[in-house]
Amino acid sequence: MKLFPAYKVLAYVVGTLLVALTIGMICKYLFPEGGSIQSFGETLTPIVAVGHGYVYMAYVVAAFILSMRAGWTYTFLGLMLLAGLVPGLIFVVERRVEAKVRAEAPALVG
């Protein structure tokens, strides 16, 4: 599998898991103790958190390699990595990354 398609899949999975984690945390901490919604959040949160952590590690590696091969600055790499930690931001940054790859390093698109 080419690097950019792998990065793109990882970005979407990380983003989706982070949104699910945020929803789980809201359910866990903002709803009344002992309720079904709070219980759902309590069950969902640790499962999604572990999944996000593992997938995020793979995302970091893919983002680093893509950034180095494309010759981007460490600042842009930092933005890519930060996007995986802020709910929803990764979807915006992934679009920027795709545009930047297509413009500056089309050989990486695959």
Helix content: over 70%
Strand segment count = 0
Number of helices: 4
> Which stretches are low in confidence, meaning pLDDT under 50 for 5 or more residues running?
none
Percent in strands:
under 5%
Number of domains: 1
**Order of H and E elements:** HHHH
Largest sheet: none
Radius of gyration: 16 Å
Mean pLDDT, nearest integer? Answer: 95
Intertermini distance? 9 Å
**Shape annotation:** elongated
Structural class: mainly alpha
Protein name: DUF3817 domain-containing protein
Subcellular location: Cell membrane
Pfam families: DUF3817
Membrane topology: Multi-pass membrane protein
Describe the structure.
The protein has helices at residues 3-30, 36-70, 74-83, 89-104. It is mostly helical and 110 residues long. The chain has one domain (3-108). The chain is elongated.
Question: What topology does this entry show?
Answer:
Layout: H1 3-30, H2 36-70, H3 74-83, H4 89-104
Helix pairs in contact: 1-2, 1-4, 2-3, 3-4
List descriptors:
110 residues, mainly alpha, 4 helices, 0% strand, elongated
In short:
The protein has 110 residues and is mainly α. The protein has helices at 3-30, 36-70, 74-83, 89-104. It has one domain (3-108).
